[in-house]
Every structure is written in C-alpha cells, then in structure tokens.
Amino acid sequence: MEIPQGLKYSKEHEWVATEESVATVGITDHAQDQLGEIVYIELPAVGDKVSKDDPFGVVESVKAVSDIYAPVSGTVVEVNEDLPESPEVVNEDPYGDGWLIKVKMNDPTDLDDLMDHEEYSELIAREKE
Amino acid sequence: MNAPKRTVLFDLHQKLGARMTEFGGFTMPVQYSGIIEEHVAVRSAAGVFDLSHMGEFEITGLHALALLERALTNSAARLVEGHAQYTLMCGEDGGTIDDLIVYRLGAERYLLCVNASNIERDREWLLDLNGGRADFNDVSAEMSLIAVQGPRAVAILERLAEFPIAAIARFGVARGQVAAVRCVVARTGYTGEDGFELFVDNAGAVRLFATILDAGASDGIKPVGLGARDTLRLEASLPLYGHELDAATSPLEAGLKTFVKLSRDFVGAKALQSQLDNGTRRHLIGIQTDDGKIVARRGYKVFADGGEAGAVTSGTFAPWRGRPIAMAYASADALKPSNALGQKIEIEVRGRRAAATIVKMPFYRRGDPRFDSRVKL
Fold first, then answer.
1. Please, how many CA atoms are within 13 Å of residue B27, restricted to the half-sphere of its CB?
2. What is residue A63's predicted lDDT score, i.e. its pLDDT?
3. CA-to-CA distance for B176 and B185, rounded, in angstroms?
4. pLDDT in tens, A86-121
5. Which of A30, A60, A63, A90 to mutate against chain B (most B CBs within 10 Å)?
6. Tens digits of per-residue pLDDT, B298-350?
7. Would you list the DSSP string of B310-370?
8. What is the rounded CA–CA span in Å between residue B61 and residue B311?
9. What's the ipTM?
10. pTM exceeds 0.90, yes or no
C-alpha cells in the first residue's frame, strides 16, 4: 500500500498536502483499496465551508458508500472537476489526479492533529491485524 | 459464534489473490480482480465461482416426492427426471423459509440446493415434515459446488466434458465426468447468463476449478467472487434470501407467483391462496434513481404517493447497465393500481430525498448491450 512521505493523514484515511494556507485533500491508497471500484463521488462546491472531522462529501463504490471527512476546516477554493465523469481516477491515482478538493485553511494548526507517514503506516498495520 | 468454515478451495482462492469475506458462516472470496471486471467477464465471456458454501440435501426413496410436494411451493410432481426447478419453502403463514433449486436425478432421487445460511433450519424443517419416511441425507459438508457462467461457458466445458454437455437443456441436469471428475452437471445459475453448476465431491473440487480456469483462459474466463455474484443476480433481478425474501415475506410479494402452484396441499398454501385472493400488502419493485448516479442502498426508505411506502432491499451500481439499480418493497396502497411502471417515487439518501422511478425488471436480459459510463471515447 502506497503511503507517500511528506503528506499528512487523518484517521478517516484522507491525505492532505499543503502549499502555504491551501490544503489539497484526497483519500489514501488504503481507502480506495478498501472501497473497491469507485463509481460516484459527491463533492462540495467552490465557496462552501468545510469543518474539520465533519463529512464534506460522499464516495460510492460498487459495494459500499462512505462519507469523506474534512481533515481541516476552511473554505473550498477548488474541486476536482474531472471526478464526476471519471471517478475511477481516485482508484488509479489517489495521491495525484484523484485529488478531491482544495481548502483555504482557517487555522493551519489543524494540521498538527494529523498523522505523518510513520504514524499512518502504523495505523494501517494495526487495522490489518 | 463459530469460526467461519472454509471450502476446500480456500487455498486456491488465496493463490488467485482473492479478498475474502464471511458469508453464510463461510470464509468466501468476495473479489479477485475487481467486481466490475469479474461482472463484465461473466456477461461477455465466462466466470467460474466457488459456491461450496451452499447446502445440498439428497432426498430419495418411495416417499421423496411426497415430502417435496408437501414442503415446497412449486410442484415437484411436474418435474421429470433430468430436470430442475426453482422453488420455495414456506411456513404456514406463507412467509419464506428458503428459496432453492430441486434437481430430479432419478425416478425417486432428488437433490436440493439451499442457501448456506439456512442449511440447519431447512434440514430441521424438512426432517420434521418428513417424519422418517423419505431417506434424507444432508451432504453439504462433503459436496462442493462450482458454477461456470457466461456466453463462453458451454464452449469451455465442452472441451473438458466426457459427454455431450451442450445437450443439457436449460434447467436440465445430468451426471458425467468433467476434467476426469465425476459431477452432477446442471444448466442452472444465478447470473442471468447461460451456464452450468457442477456438484462434486470435495476431493475433486480443486482439480475441477483449476482445470476450468486453465481451459477457459483463452476465452477470457475469470474467477468470480461473491461481490460480482451479487451485482450479477441483482442486474438479472433474481431475489437473494435475507434481502428480497425472508420469514416475513411471501413469494407472492416477491413477484414469484410462477413458482407457487396452488390447489395443492403444501405448507403455506392456505395463506398464499388468501394473499392471492385479497392481494398482497406490498410489492417488490425495481428502481432507478433519476440522476443515474446515486445508489439506493439496502435499508434506504422509499416514499411514494406522499408518504413512506417501504424500503430498499438491495441496491448497487450495475456494472453492465452502467448505472445504479435497486429493488425495494413498496406498500400496495402507495402504488398506482394497474401498473406502477414509470411511477415517480423518492428515496431517502443520507437525509435527503432523491428522485427515482419505478422501472421494469429484470434490469438486464441476456444479450442486452453494455452501457459503460466509465469508458471514454
């Protein structure tokens, strides 16, 4: 399972990449693998507010539906416009073309509550036990 | 809770990279390469399934037919040797104990294939009705079941069978060797495709499964798990016990009147006759969400004619139809009296109402072309 260095991870299996005060959010390789083939993704609109630990969207796979939780609070500044037509990109490239939204963070210290590569790797290892 | 049982194919599934899940008391493969890929393989080429969790009863002797005629809604008396029928077992109240297939293997020799989760209950129920007259043998633990389904199934098995397997008619059953393994071969299935189900002693199951996979490689055969089995049966609008059928649901509510032969003395006949005379309280309906994206999942509430009318029993993204489909029960009062097809309803999806339409079932008929919203031109 791919868990890139340099990203932050939530216990709900979202990843965050930050550039100044803007956080790019997606779901992890582990999350997409668990969900299986993704067929539909519901995302907020640009300008919507998201709150840390609250659901901001929904991902439907063939077998299940899951909420996607915001790892940080802020305002959505961009959404991945390709996903409504090609949700399978999240399976194929969860850390790249399969990103979900970009959020202008209210409080960058939100990031302190997230896990790094090592901590998230441990979480995945524990879940597999 | 007992630890889940394994079929004799467990090691082979692991070797094939299956992801396993618990179902009906067994550890079964849920998927190998992926649900959509496996589903498409069955519709366009072939798939091979381990269904060894299913239960098998052999009922033989002079009193075998009498037991089946008493216990089952379809008339086993109409079944000629070498044929099979879909049937149901009901309680006195007309609620469904199980749905199953009866195979008539000889003059006084029947094989019943029942759902894994119902094996014990079915056995006790049948033994009770039998009262020791027919010879009853639960062979579930010794028997494996392998299904080969899809348009290439006949061609693949013809290469391996030492008898004219293509001559078996739809819902026919014969005995013979396949891949040098003695089998009971039936032209039945649960996918909406042509294909076979092969009952074998556990000892021959691994060889049979592996040989079929090998022989069908050039045809594009794939091992298929329970994930795609569910999407295939749902697309073909076949009921699943525990979803569309249960002890509180009659076969008539489930739209299975064809398999209920009344005017006979079987358990539940009176209740079912009364339902038929007075109309059932609710009907099984097919649903599509209007936006073509939201999946109405099991348990979601159905609203029709201004009020809550029922709930979804099964829902999924249909890989061949390329859109979500669902089945639900809706109260007869909320449905248009003559024909509810096309009626607009709503499904409660995560606290919101999604527009949906009642559509004709089955969602898929053999040979329907694929619509794949995910394929880009």
1. 16
2. 86
3. 7
4. 999 999 999 999 999 999 999 999 999 999 999 999
5. A63
6. 999 999 988 999 999 999 999 999 999 999 999 999 998 877 999 999 999 98
7. EEEEEEEEETTTTEEEEEEEEEGGGS-SS--TT-EEEEEETTEEEEEEEE-S-S--TTPPP
8. 44
9. 0.86
10. yes
Nearest CA in chain B to A63: B316
Per-residue pLDDT averaged across B4-33, rounded? Answer: 97
pLDDT of residue B376: 44
Q: How far apart are CA B308 and CA B302, in angstroms?
A: 6
Query: Which residues from chain A sit within 8 angstroms of residue B374, using beta carbons?
Result: 39, 86-88
Cβ of A40 within 8 Å of Cβ of B31? The answer is no
CB contact B55 to A (< 8 Å): no
Domains of chain B, earliest start first? 1-248+265-279 (3.30.1360.120), 280-370 (2.40.30.110)
Distance in Å from the first CA to the final CA of chain B:
50
User: Closest Cα partner for A15 from A84, A93, A83?
Assistant: A93
Q: Which residues of B touch A128 (CB under 8 A)?
A: none
Q: Which residues of B touch A36 (CB under 8 A)?
A: 31, 34-35, 227
A44: preceding bond cis by omega (within 30 degrees): no
Q: Do A37 and B35 touch (CB under 8 A)?
A: yes
Closest CB to B36: pick one of A37, A65, A86: A37
A128 reaches B (C-beta below 8 A): no
